[in-house]
Amino acid sequence: MTYELYYWPGIQGRGEFVRLALEDAGARYRDVGREDRTALTRFLDDRKVTHPPFAPPFLKSGKLVVAQTANILLYLGPREGLAPKGEAGRLWVHQLQLTLADLVLEAHDVHHPLGANFYYENQKPESLRRAADFRAERLPKFLGYFEDVLARNRAKGDYLSGRTRSYADLSLFQVVEGLRYAFPRAMARLDRDHPRIAALHDRIAARPRIKAYLASDRRIPFNEDGIFRHYPELDGD
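Above: the chain's sequence. Below: its structure in token form.
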């Protein structure tokens, strides 16, 4: 079976978490939005869809349509070897993914604290204030949590849920990549304080399928239209 991923064609965004999972699993999939730029809108406007998504990303698996990033990964996890087999383990990985989703939202809101309908240029003073708090308080708190999870697992393995990587590890890799792009100075300091996260990032980057994906044109570059945006003034001194 070939999965169909629907997401905006010009950004990594939340769709990238799904792409990384599909790539690492070696699953067959079509990135529909990049093949046909009108397909996503046509699908969202289709009144015949029984369970319509609110917004992308969403994944078609046969006749099934699954939306919301964490929900898609919860679906893919046991089917593609990206989650533990037991219920407790699957719920734990899902919990980690939801926590990462909270971090992703806060990273986005640094450059859009007043709302997505306002241009960044119209909310710079608020963004500067939000960025200072994010760098000093929120980001260390989130990274400290995941560093501690890895430390507690050190007797079981090198990944968030033990010896085997899960989709949460792939997502943490993507979050680190995005944060290093958006806040390179802040992350240069924080990487030193979170060596287990940095090591996990490097292990994921070295996985053969992920390494090939990152070097391919399937990987959309970071840019200032996505979730993680680099505005030097928001990165501090």
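The mean pLDDT is 96.
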